[in-house]
Design a protein that fits this description.
The protein is mostly beta strands. It is built from 3 helices and 29 strands. The strands form 8 sheets. Strands 1, 2, 3, 4, 5, 7, 8 and 9 form an 8-stranded mixed β-sheet that branches. It starts with a helix and ends with a strand.
């Protein structure tokens, strides 16, 4: 064989080896799939995310007028047909600015894997006190929805009534338009706050102080919510009805839980400190008390209210004003509610993004005295030595708007 032919054969062998190596590299590289994507997928889909949020808390009264839950941080999770998370997108500073505007432009997310067909948007998770959003790898629709949230991380901040730190979430399918030449993938996500909010505007007395048995003065010691769901999920789903702290069915727990320390001021004793006592919680500011609660359904699962009062003065049978029971602390319990001005329409659900307000205002005599209107109203016969020691409930007008204020009344 001539040297010329041998040299030609060597070149052909080198070329074949190069082509084989190239083909092997091309097959194993798989076009650099997006991290978190499913095997064999390309990250070449652009999805337009249209976000609508229920954020404005309107008709709130003077103390918190115009309060909002705004988006401070967020992550969009993309899922494939098997509900595995294939991709995620973190909202940027410009996205957040856009979402805070009057007109919200769609957010275009690039490099989404082709298999993505649904999204979950989770916001304010970091603001609520959690350190990081979960990464896509290893997560599914179920695991993202099941991310736990503690009730203590969703409360009004000390000294203000803000709803700004409440987590909002929503989910939606990705759809494609009918033009195959320029395919457009889009989704419309509505996100809502995952919490309900309970507000009390006033605690007052029945009567005008002129009749025998009328209360003429009292001191408010605190407003507490002893029963509540201590945890839920980022989608606002309660873990279990049996997980309620101090369920209504067990009233024996309340005897020694409430504070008995000294205090002087109406609205100042235990107020503005977001004090948390064992088994009960309380937050207050200005002339309104507020507490964020997880949504609940059914009368036995709704949060009840316990009011502590002391230094009660009343008109005795001889016409003299006297100290009731040596000024001891007494309790009023609110176990159920009806819609304002409609005693026959019971409140049976606390829904997310709704405010349930027991509305009212003190009269010209000031707090803790006869006069005024609305609120939690009581008389001597409603007072017990311990919470739930009286077999009756106070009637509250409850009012609702999105962030809906719903005016309710306690049943008496």
């Amino acid at each position: 064989m001539s040297n010329l032919k041998l040299d030609k054969m060597r070149k052909l062998s080198y070329l074949a080896a190069f082509l084989a190596a190239f083909m092997m590299f091309s097959c194993t590289n798989n076009d650099n799939p997006v991290p978190g994507g499913e095997e064999g997928e390309k990250g070449d889909k652009t999805v337009e995310i249209n976000i609508k949020s229920v954020i404005t808390k309107s008709d709130d009264g003077a103390v918190i007028n115009g309060a909002k839950t705004s988006i401070q941080d967020g992550t969009i999770y993309f899922f494939g047909a098997n509900n595995n998370c294939v991709f995620s997108y973190t909202l940027t500073a410009s996205d957040i600015t856009n979402l805070a505007g009057q007109t919200i432009a769609p957010i275009s997310v690039l490099n989404v894997p082709a298999a993505a067909n649904k999204v979950i948007l989770l916001t304010n998770y970091l603001l609520a006190g959690y350190t990081t959003y979960p990464l896509p790898a290893g997560n599914t629709v179920a695991t993202i929805k099941a991310l736990p949230v503690s009730i203590t991380k969703q409360q009004p901040k000390t000294g203000n009534m803000s709803v700004a730190n409440v987590i909002m979430s929503g989910e939606a399918d990705i759809v494609i338009d009918t033009n195959p030449a320029t395919p457009l993938y889009a989704t419309n996500v509505t996100i809502t706050p995952i919490m309900s909010r309970l507000e009390v505007s006033r605690v007052g007395v029945k009567g005008d102080g002129s009749q025998v048995g009328d209360i003429t003065e009292f001191r408010l010691r605190g407003i507490f919510i002893p029963n509540h769901y201590p945890s839920s999920t980022v989608m606002g789903n309660n873990t279990s009805e049996s997980s309620i702290v101090n369920p209504l069915s067990d009233k024996t727990k309340y005897t020694n839980l409430f504070p008995t320390g000294s205090g002087t001021g109406y609205l100042n004793d235990y107020a503005d400190n977001s004090v948390v006592f064992p088994g009960l919680v309380h937050a207050a500011t200005g002339n309104m008390w507020a507490y964020h609660v997880f949504p609940a359904s059914g009368n036995l699962n709704l949060p009840q209210i316990v009011v502590a009062v002391d230094k009660i003065m009343f008109k005795d049978t001889d016409g003299e004003v006297k100290l009731w029971n040596n000024g001891a602390i007494k309790y009023i319990t609110v176990e159920s509610y009806h819609v304002k001005d409609n005693p026959l329409l019971a409140v049976t659900d606390f829904l997310p993004a709704n405010v349930y307000r027991i509305d009212g205002a003190d009269g010209e005599n000031g707090p803790g005295k006869p006069g005024g209107w609305g609120g939690i109203i009581f008389e001597l016969d409603d007072l017990g030595d311990t919470p739930y020691s009286k077999d009756k409930t106070v009637s509250c007008n409850i009012t609702v708007t999105p962030w809906n204020v719903k005016l309710i009344e306690p049943n008496m």
